[in-house]
User: Which sequence fits this backbone?
């Protein structure tokens, strides 16, 4: 028999055939998936942008417009605040956009076709992860560069508006802090304010409290603003001598808030308006200052503990025994102050904002992993289901972020865990769902 006529077994493959498990995604398919993901991301981004825009900007613009501020200045205020909206919208849009894309691919059986063609589940993640990484970088740049720049321009414009409309600084049912003055206002109708409380410090260093049933806000232009108080009660007292105080009832009292105090009230930049570099420097400086103060406080704490121990060891015959209660009070007071210093609100706020600079933008990566895993696990889904799941998961993520931030501020809980916990949970759930899909 001629060897060349030997039949090849039916299960044999050509020598140049590539195993299906080793196939990689073609450039055409990669572009197709990226383009589809970007389209869904754009739709989702516009949805979240509209929500945050209405919630944070239109409400602010309405308050400013109510004080007869020119419309073009209000439009500029809105424009300068856009970077913050972009930074918040992008990560949530990546979640919803990926869910919508994977849902459509699943409902059209395109994922089944890709798997049948030899692509692995891991390869399906590649386009989504590339888009998620690009979104994270763009969101971080908007939050870390554009946001501080917009904040500076926003503050400059607001100062110019305030020069012409000082009444912007007082709002209904609010607490406003100026340089040495705190003004608490009740309901406001036009220029009339009810239940006004003013806490300030006089030129002699006395603490003063002024109460009035109602007041009228007067615009003093470049001089600042004034409150015409009716039926006012005023009390002033020295801080070191509690029994030394004065009080008076007056039918009418005009209280002035100088223009320089108004300017100082809006000049300070809050932690969420700083760049990551500025926040890191501020956290380091505050940490060094806190460490120095804690060392001094620990010295007093240990000294109080030694005095307390000495008074207890000597017993009743010694005069130190009579000081045991005061030593115990001093010891517990120092311990309480150390606990409060470790929960110092200022440094915790800066640490929280520093971690948010990275956790929120790069949350898009954990969102993408979770979204693709959910989409692959579902037997049949669609864009509508992906949209609904995106809204639900975004709400849960935001609630976890706000709860963690509140707990950290009130209890001193780790700012890192408080901010990164939602991302870690999303990443862990995404990994578990992906493993379940592979093993199924």
Assistant:
């Amino acid at each position: 028999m001629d060897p060349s006529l030997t039949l090849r077994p039916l299960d044999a493959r050509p020598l140049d055939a590539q195993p299906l498990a080793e196939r990689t995604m073609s450039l055409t398919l990669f572009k197709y998936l990226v383009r589809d993901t970007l389209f869904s991301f754009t739709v989702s981004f516009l949805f979240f942008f509209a929500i945050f825009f209405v919630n944070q900007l239109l409400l602010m613009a309405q308050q400013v417009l109510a004080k007869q501020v020119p419309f073009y200045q209000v439009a500029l205020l809105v424009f300068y605040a856009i970077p913050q909206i972009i930074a918040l919208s992008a990560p949530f849009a990546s979640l919803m956009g990926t869910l919508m894309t994977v849902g459509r691919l699943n409902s059209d059986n395109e994922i089944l076709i890709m798997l049948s063609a030899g692509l692995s589940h891991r390869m399906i993640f590649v386009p989504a992860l590339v888009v998620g990484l690009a979104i994270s970088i763009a969101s971080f740049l908007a939050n870390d560069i554009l946001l501080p720049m917009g904040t500076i321009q926003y503050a400059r414009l607001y100062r110019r508006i305030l020069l012409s409309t000082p009444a912007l600084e007082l709002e209904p049912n609010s607490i406003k802090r100026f340089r040495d003055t705190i003004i608490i206002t009740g309901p406001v109708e036009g220029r009339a304010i009810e239940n006004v409380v003013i806490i300030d410090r006089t030129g002699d260093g006395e603490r003063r409290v002024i109460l009035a049933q109602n007041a009228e806000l007067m615009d003093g232009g470049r001089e600042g603003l004034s409150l015409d108080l009716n039926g006012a009660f005023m009390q002033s007292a020295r801080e070191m001598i509690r029994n030394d105080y004065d009080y008076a009832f007056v039918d009418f009292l005009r209280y002035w808030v100088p223009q320089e105090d108004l300017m100082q009230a809006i000049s300070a930049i809050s932690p969420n308006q700083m760049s990551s570099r500025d926040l890191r420097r501020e956290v380091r400086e505050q940490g060094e200052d806190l460490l120095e103060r804690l060392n001094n406080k620990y010295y007093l704490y240990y000294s109080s503990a030694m005095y307390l121990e000495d008074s207890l060891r000597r017993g009743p015959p010694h005069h130190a025994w009579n000081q045991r209660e005061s030593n115990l009070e001093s010891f517990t007071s120092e311990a309480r102050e150390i606990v409060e210093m470790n929960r110092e609100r200022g440094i915790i706020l800066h640490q929280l904002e520093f971690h948010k600079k990275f956790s929120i933008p790069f949350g898009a990566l954990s969102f993408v992993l979770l979204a693709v895993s959910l989409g692959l696990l579902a037997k049949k889904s669609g864009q509508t289901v992906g949209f609904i799941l995106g809204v639900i998961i975004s709400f849960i993520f935001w609630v976890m972020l706000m709860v963690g931030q509140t707990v950290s501020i009130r209890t001193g809980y780790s700012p890192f865990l408080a901010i990164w916990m939602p991302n870690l949970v999303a990443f862990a759930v995404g990994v578990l769902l992906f493993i379940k899909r592979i093993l199924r």
